[in-house]
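Anyone opening a protein record will find just a pair of labelled lines. The record below illustrates this layout.
***
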Amino acid sequence: MNRAPGQPYRVLLIEDSRDDAELIAFALADGGLQADCQRAWSADTLREALRDAAPQLVLSDLNLPGFCAEEALQMVRAHDPRLPFVLLTGTPAIALPEPLPGTDGLLSKDDLQQLPDLVRQLLR
């Protein structure tokens, strides 16, 4: 992990909703994680963020208008096959779909309190 002690994690949020992106960032902070979150919402902004932000973790909405999580996963894996990639969905936890192959987790946005522990586990 390329992170100096005391430095925030670099987290890329692939999220079309600014409100949801803020809630995700708040969930990380509430869980005691320092995170510098950058948001991408399209293929173009994702390409820029992968190039410029050097993320250590990607959190992606499952349903993106005009741009799907599967495409985002392919772009991230082409950039860095080891970069942790977690899907987030508005679907309630009791009805979660199967995670996409190649992802490192799937979490309902209703259960964001679980996100900090998942992030710690993935970035250990």
Remarks:
- The first helix runs from residue 18 to 30.
- The chain has four helices and five strands.
- The CA atoms of residues 43 and 67 lie 7 Å apart.
